[in-house]
Write a sequence for this structure.
């Protein structure tokens, strides 16, 4: 099994390899929000739903990054909502926000407590996405999936979770890696039709 970074995978992208056929994760890009000895948790950042944020959290709709839709964060707890935010520049974490990765000065990505009044935290944010559900792995499960070739583990950019073109994110992340991974970006969704 390939050794993972000592800091774990928090703040990294799991980009599905073409061999990952599970419909929950095929061609998905997962931002890892927490990874430790107990397991991992992340959100699929490229699966917008056809539901506006205001259907479930109307007060947060004005802050939602385009396309202003809910995103399916993963197959676990689809009846729960998780708010991911971008905090620009060198600002300290706003009230109700817990930094996940990044740093003051360069901007960061964090989780927002959706019970915080949006008008309090909104002026401090550069982006907001609301996710229905999340992706979760038990201890060593994600490491096994990586070793089995299900995921490319890649660096994340703060804008990945807030892209205005989420449907193209899988290919865009692979293309920016260059080399062989850039070639994988053009792999057909169904190779039997090639």
């Amino acid at each position: 099994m390939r050794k993972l970074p000592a800091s774990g995978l928090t703040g990294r992208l799991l980009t599905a390899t073409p061999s990952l056929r599970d419909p929950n994760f095929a061609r998905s890009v997962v931002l890892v929000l927490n990874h430790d000895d107990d397991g991992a948790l992340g959100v699929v950042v490229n699966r917008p739903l056809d539901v506006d944020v205001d259907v479930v959290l109307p007060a947060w709709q004005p802050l939602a990054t385009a396309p202003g839709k809910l995103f399916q964060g993963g197959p676990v707890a689809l009846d729960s909502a998780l708010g991911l935010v971008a905090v620009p520049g060198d600002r300290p974490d706003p009230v109700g926000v817990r930094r996940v990765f990044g740093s003051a000065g360069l901007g960061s990505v964090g989780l927002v407590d959706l019970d915080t009044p949006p008008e309090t935290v909104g002026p401090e944010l550069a982006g907001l996405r609301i996710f229905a559900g999340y992706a979760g792995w038990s201890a060593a499960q994600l490491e096994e999936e990586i070793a089995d070739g299900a995921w490319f583990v890649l660096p994340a950019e703060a804008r990945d979770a807030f892209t205005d073109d989420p449907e193209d994110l899988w290919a865009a992340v692979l293309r920016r890696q260059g080399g062989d991974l850039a070639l994988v970006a053009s792999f057909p969704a169904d190779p039997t039709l090639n």
